[in-house]
């Protein structure tokens, strides 16, 4: 299942950053190499799937936002060839920690076993139910 795509990474981190991380050609093309970005996304998506397999039926019918953030942080980390900056390593470590919480059932995704949302988020209004009229106009 795809939790993150190269387009998502481009939207989050910007074209310049993605060119720096993916343009590995010699000579450089000064363009985003979507194949490199896709490999990082595939690795992150596979890692998330491996954690979810025992707890949920895959593919999920809807993707919780938390899983998108986790996959994004994993893929971003995997795009760095050398030692990534500390803030990126911290994001990666947090993503790994959250995957561990999900694996152990300590962090809920807000979806049932097939990935359907547990709560109707279509509106924040309470449902009002009535048994009908209790009072009449005349006495």
Explained architecture:
It is built from 5 helices and no strands. By secondary structure, the chain is mainly alpha-helical. It has one domain (6-103). Helix 4 packs across helix 5 (86-103). It starts with 5 loop residues before the first helix and ends in a 36-residue tail after the last helix. The mean pLDDT is 87.
Give a summary of the structure in a few sentences.
This protein has 139 residues and is mainly alpha-helical. The chain has helices at residues 6-13, 15-22, 34-52, 65-78, 86-103. The chain has five helices and no strands.
The largest sheet is: none
Measure the end-to-end span: 65 Å
Number of strands: 0
Question: Per DSSP, what share of the residues sits in E-state strands of 2 or more residues?
Answer: under 5%
**Helix content class:** 40-55%
Low-confidence stretches: none
Radius of gyration: 22 Å
Question: Which shape, going by the Cα principal axes?
Answer: elongated
Mean pLDDT level: 87
Structural category: mainly alpha
- Tally of domains: 1
Number of helices: 5
Taken in chain order, the helices and strands follow as HHHHH
Write the layout of secondary structure elements.
Blueprint: H1 6-13, H2 15-22, H3 34-52, H4 65-78, H5 86-103
Helix pairs in contact: 1-2, 3-4, 4-5
Index terms:
139 residues; mainly alpha
